[in-house]
Amino acid sequence: MPFETIENTWITLPDGRRLAARLWLPDTGPAAAILEYLPYRKRDGTAPRDETTHTTFAEAGYVCIRVDIAGTGDSEGQFDDEYSEQELHDGEEVIAWIAAQDWCDGHIGMIGISWGGFNGLQLAFRQPPALKAVVSVASTVDRYSDDIHFMGGCLLSDNMNWGGQMFAYLTRPADPDLRADWREDWLTRLQSVPFSAADWLRHQTRDAFWKHGSVCEDWSAIQTPVLAITGWADAYVNAPTALAANLAVPTKAVIGPWEHRYPHISKLDPADFHSEVIGWFDRWLKGQENGAEDLPAYRTYMQEHFNPTAHNSARQGRWIAETTWPSPHVSEQAWHLAQGGFSREPATGTVAVTSPSHVGREGGYFCAGMRIDNELAGDQARDDALSVCFDSAPLQAPLELLGRAKLKFRFSVDRPVAQLVARLCDVSPVGVSQRISYRPLNLCHYRSHETPESLRPGEIYEAEIVLNECAHYLREGHVLRLALSTSYWPIVWPAPHSAEVTMHLQDCTLHLPVREVTHEVQASEPGPAQNYPVLAGEQLRPPSAQSERTVTKNGQVVLETFDDYGKSRDPYHDLIVGSDVRMRYCIHPDDPTTAHFETAWSFSFEREDWQVAISTECRMTCDAQNFYLYRKLRATEGADEIEVLTKEWSETVPRGLL
């Protein structure tokens, strides 16, 4: 279907601020609209991806609109924080504005991955009248428990990594072709960019800050049908099934083998994302009786052992489906922990768990799909060797897991602050260990994420770790392994001291979500990715990536990565953009307070006689009492790189019980 692309239009909010939007308008007259609402710059940041999605949706008869959040991209105003009240209130105004346009028939859907997946759910929670359906990819229902900041009450190193990335992103200027005031606005952005990593780090428990935007606070508030999608290589694996289990409106969950990308552009078995999205919106925005509501509640890729590697590589498995979720075909099996393995009855005695600080080297990048390559979890055998492992006997029959395993245990510690990390692994007959699922727990949170408490050495406590969702088929002859460690670097920032966690086996049980291997439902799996448009930009520098692990003379274990995202010219408006990022993680196995993370971003923008460049640096270190955060930016203008601003910030945040 023919459509017109409008590179920029302005949405004027009631307070006078203007948000920048890109439009794809089909030639059909008033039509249903699909909104994607992001801070990632529709002019350049998401333009290549938008070409693959919104053009296809417009050809299917939808108005598509890509809006920059206030203070980002070309939009006016100041950015304050992710999923803030300003962002969500503005989103409601945007939806009302779209519904009032003569090219819209009043029916609006939202789509997005990650940030856009989050705010799609969050806006549905607020019930704007014109919002009729949501497609949410790689999102969360609980901002404290399942985002990029904390997991199980433990601090994720990606809190600083993501804060550094957003720091770099928010320093980028609006396009002078669209904003005559671009330079004044740019200086304001540079001077006032929030120190997000420090702000987030101050909220160390599940307080009101994190409850805001967490739709699990009231499932009944979401009244629009939701299609929730993610991939097993992604960090965000828990939301689709949680939504399918808890929402009263039509909700479907799909989890494929993909990383943190839309499925059609995944590097891990790309799939037909377009048909899934169009079918969902056709049903709920156009009223077509296409059977979308009759699809199985949960469709997923049941993975199998595939000799894991950090590099992008094909998955192995098959698609399955469950008509309803939770499924009556999944039952819980209790496996009691015993010395080195499992037993049918509760065992006796204790097992001590203490790990060097660099356990986790094979864990991969927390959110695979953000880098170019070298980011997936590899063979866990080296990490297993530094952990305490409980192994099953070689399986006499296949074992199929679908859901969230739970480790219930009694423990004591020798430190007031300690962590325990549980990994579930599939070990082949030749010893290759593939991670199935994992989850850390800050043991100070054994009772509550809202009111943690310092632990008393020697006292016995009870706790539970609910591991992340999984779908995994273990073949006959393979071993199911539970690996326990007191560290998981660099995904999890370590506790202030090396600790020994004593497991009291009498009350330690692994509860497995076992699916009937013989149960099958027509999977209605997504087919292979269809052909889609690609932005025909001029590549001026190709992308490239490097990753290197070293050990220094003093024993520091170092991981250094470099991703050059290349440099290209946009064919629609000739803007040339280049970017790259360096990251460095290091730690000494014997001293968790040596944990060190740093990252540096570079951006360049140019067109004819206009050039600007931005470089940012961020660093985080710690001791037993505090976290130390540092950041710096340098911005230049012109071919001679005349300095516009250089500024540094430092913050010290007390560790509390982290």
Strands, helices and their partners?
Elements: E1 3-12, E2 18-26, E3 31-38, H1 47-59, E4 63-68, H2 85-100, E5 104-113, H3 115-126, E6 131-137, E7 150-151, E8 154-155, H4 158-170, H5 182-192, H6 196-201, H7 208-211, E9 226-231, H8 239-246, E10 251-256, H9 273-284, E11 298-303, E12 317-322, E13 330-338, E14 341-343, E15 350-353, H10 381-385, E16 388-391, E17 399-403, E18 406-413, E19 419-427, E20 433-442, E21 461-466, E22 470-474, E23 479-485, E24 501-504, E25 509-515, E26 538-541, E27 544-551, E28 557-569, E29 576-588, E30 591-607, E31 610-622, E32 626-637, E33 642-654
Parallel strand pairs: 3-4, 3-5, 5-6, 6-9, 9-10, 10-11
Antiparallel strand pairs: 1-2, 2-4, 7-8, 11-12, 13-14, 13-25, 15-24, 16-23, 17-22, 18-21, 18-24, 18-25, 19-20, 19-23, 26-28, 27-28, 28-29, 29-30, 30-31, 31-32, 32-33
Pfam families: Peptidase_S15, PepX_C
Protein name: Cocaine esterase
EC number: 3.1.1.84
